Amino acid sequence: MAIERLLIANRGEIACRIIETAKRLGIETVAVYSEADRLARHVRLADHAQFIGGRAAKDSYLNIEAILAAAKDAQADAIHPGYGFLAENADFAQAVVGAGLIFVGPSAQTIEQMGSKAQAKALVSAANVPVVPGYHGDDQSLETLLHQAQSIGFPLMIKAAAGGGGKGMRIVESHDACEAALEAARREAKASFGDERVILERYVEHPRHIEAQIFGDHSGRVIHLYERDCSSQRRHQKIIEEAPAAGLNPTLRENLLQAAVDAARSVNYVGAGTVEFLLDADQAHFYLLEMNTRLQVEHPVTEMITGLDLVEWQLRVAMGESLPNQDEIPSPIGHAFEARVYAEDPDQGFLPSAGRIRSLNWPQSARIDSGVEAGDVIGIDYDPMIAKLIVHGQDRQSALKELQSALDQCFIEGLTSNVPFLQALAASDPMQRGDIDTGHLDRELSSIYPAPAHQAEPALLVAAVVWMARTDREGQIRQANSPWGVSDGWRLGLPARPRFLRIHQGGQCHSLTASVEHEADDAAQTQSIVHIDIDGASHRITPSALSATDNGALGQVWIGEIDGEATQAVVHATAHGLIEVSIGHVRYGFRIHLPGEQTGADAAASGQIQAPMPGLVSEINGEVGQAVKAGEVLALMEAMKMELAIKAPVDGVVSAIHVAPQSRVDAATLLIEITPSE
User: Fold this and answer.
1) Beta strand 5-8 with 28-34: parallel, antiparallel or unpaired?
2) Do residues 331 and 307 lie in contact, with contact meaning Cβ atoms separated by under 8 Å?
3) 3-state SS, residue 6
4) How confident is the model at residue 551 (pLDDT cuts 50, 70, 90)?
5) Measured between alpha carbons, how far is 468 from 478 in angstroms, rounded to an integer?
6) Where in the sequence numbering do the catalytic residues fall?
7) C-alpha count within 13 angstroms, C-beta hemisphere, residue 288
8) How far apart are CA 332 and CA 541, in angstroms?
9) What residues have CB less than 8 Å from 513, skipping those under 6 apart?
10) In 3-state terms, what secondary structure has residue 138?
């Protein structure tokens, strides 16, 4: 059952991750790609590549026939599904085996059993695995569901029986709200999974999400590789994961891990899987949430505390090798965190971002699992993950410090990322205490990550000083080590000439006047002092350490004094006027107004409507000559499975429409022009 050529039926980060291990084991790899992924990193890394269809997932990565045809053409003898797409599709697993190939995962029967929440909970209950009280029956009439809801009691959780990811999920506080919630959940479940069946469960308030990594082999042996805590979630999507889970009672941990093994044994599990549990607020009881019959996104934290390669274990089990006994598994070493870095804008309600990555700056101290490199494009067709950042420490506190430091050093130019949000979350009091439940971020988001901060003046001043140090008076990057590149305007016997800067932060534009003077200290050493006037206030800045002369992203520590107060920041700056400053693990983003540049705010004020991100213009509602009011919806765009309303920025008259419905556009494409009213 040796695997000599492996086809990876996936893309992005997980495809690259599988290729890495397969190559180390001497296994040839075959990538598959859609029209959107012709130049993707996983295609570049693989030994062979097969085209499987159009941009839409249904035409490519969800197309079972196309993937099997690609495996046949490439003469592959095994298929690894990764996670997502077809990874938990029983029909796909059966088709792979039916084609005479090795499926790197559990059997189709196991996937089917665990894929149905109702069936899964019935099976594991028979194995004495605790489940949340609820209704998982076949009678899906509204009358029965309402009766069962009343019997279970409120608050109540409604879940789609055939899916996950928060789709078809509703929390119901009272009987009066139950009927409308049931109808809405069933509609969403039908649209998302083609199956409107739901299950009802008692809602466990303020739970932690604890999951166990399990493995099974063909001999029937099932073991665990300890647990992870994935409670840091927003809208049921995991953000930061850690292993092991902090603060668990040793007896409870042992019982939970044994329950996970028992659940896997109940379905003759083979390969890697994860058994997820809810731990109640008192940390006295745990209940099965679901079982994922695949490798999890967060598997690296388990690898970091065990020193094992889980993808290697998957491949070895698929080839018929036996697992070690549980007592042969090493005890966890230290603590690990993983942060999911996404192309999304936390200041705009986590709106997905897209575009070409100009540069990437990753910390040397962290493990980075990524499906992209500088120059690659995050498109609108798939999940906008950029990378997973993983750190390890000797204990939880040291690992958390490593995470904070690593996030400070991250810099992504070309699109907006959630790194500022990750920094704020990692530095928050609940994260420091290990006291986050699955609903915490939805309840307390504004306290952990407030709206774009207006109290960013120290960071703004650092950004101004850094830009002045890097550029001449015309805003051009000066030559390194050139005496003619000094930008302070110093002249013999005369005061320095001031420089004027416009710096944008979010929707605000700050105008600054800055000048530099040189002072000699008692040791006759010359020191540069920067004076900045902004909003009627004057500030004195003394940079004592700054290296800011290259043309790329810096990621360097700035040390100095601002109005006599010692200040330290991590600075990232580019030749394109983008500067990000982190002070106290809070990141502020600034854009220097370059000479002759028109900003998005300027364009909006003049009546120009630009595409906020790459996408499909699905509808145009306005026409030339039409009078419009600010806020009126003039077009609709579809991007990353979201619908965006394109609104008039000003009152006026539509003077030009530059795109037609069903047009694909890039970010900042001019869509519509309005002549503003006087």
Assistant:
1) parallel
2) no
3) strand
4) very low
5) 10
6) 294
7) 30
8) 47
9) 498, 499, 500, 532, 533, 534
10) coil
- φ, ψ of residue 337 to 5 degrees: the values are -130, 150
Tokens standing for residue 217: 């082999």
The residues near 7 (Cβ < 8 Å, ≥ 6 apart) are: 29, 30, 32, 50, 67, 70, 71, 74, 76, 78, 79, 80
Beta bridge mates, 290: 276
Average pLDDT over residues 564-582: 90
What is the number of alpha carbons within 13 Å of residue 247 lying toward its C-beta?
14
pLDDT digits (tens, 9 = 90+) for 614-659: 788 989 988 999 999 988 999 998 876 567 788 888 899 999 999 9
DSSP character for 55? S
Q: Are 287 and 132 in contact (CB under 8 A)?
A: yes
pLDDT recorded at residue 644:
79
Model confidence at 523: pLDDT above 60: no
Give the span between the Cα atoms of 594 and 4, in whole angstroms: 55
Q: Is the dihedral of CA 652, 657, 660, 662 positive or negative?
A: negative
**Sign of the dihedral through C-alpha 397, 398, 400, 405:** positive
Please state, in angstroms and as integers, the Cα–Cα distance from residue 193 to each residue in 10, 87, 110, 235, 283, following that order.
20, 15, 19, 18, 33
The pLDDT, as a whole number, for residue 299 is 98
The one-character DSSP state at 482 is -
pLDDT (tens digit, 9 = 90+) per residue, 86-141? 999 999 999 999 999 999 999 999 999 998 877 888 889 889 999 988 898 889 99
What is the number of other CB atoms lying within 10 angstroms of the CB of residue 310?
20
State the pTM of this model: 0.83
Segment (H or E) for 515: strand 508-520
The residues, any chain, with a CB within 8 Å of residue 382's CB and separated by 6 or more, are: 11, 12, 36, 57
Name the amino acid, one letter, at 189. A
CA separation for the pair 650, 223 (Å, rounded): 63
| HEC-encoded secondary structure of 288-356 | EEEEECCCCCCHHHHHHHHCCCHHHHHHHHHCCCCCCCHHHCCCCCCEEEEEEEECEEHHHCCEECCEE
Strand partners, 588: 581
**What's the whole-number mean pLDDT along residues 385-396?**
98
pLDDT of residue 120: 86
Half-sphere exposure of 372 (CA within 13 A, CB side): 28
Reported residue count of the chain is 678
Output the six-digit token pair for 100: 């005479």
Alpha-carbon gap, residue 547 to 61, rounded angstroms = 46
For the sheet containing 48-53, what is the strand order?
48-53, 28-34, 5-8, 78-80, 102-103
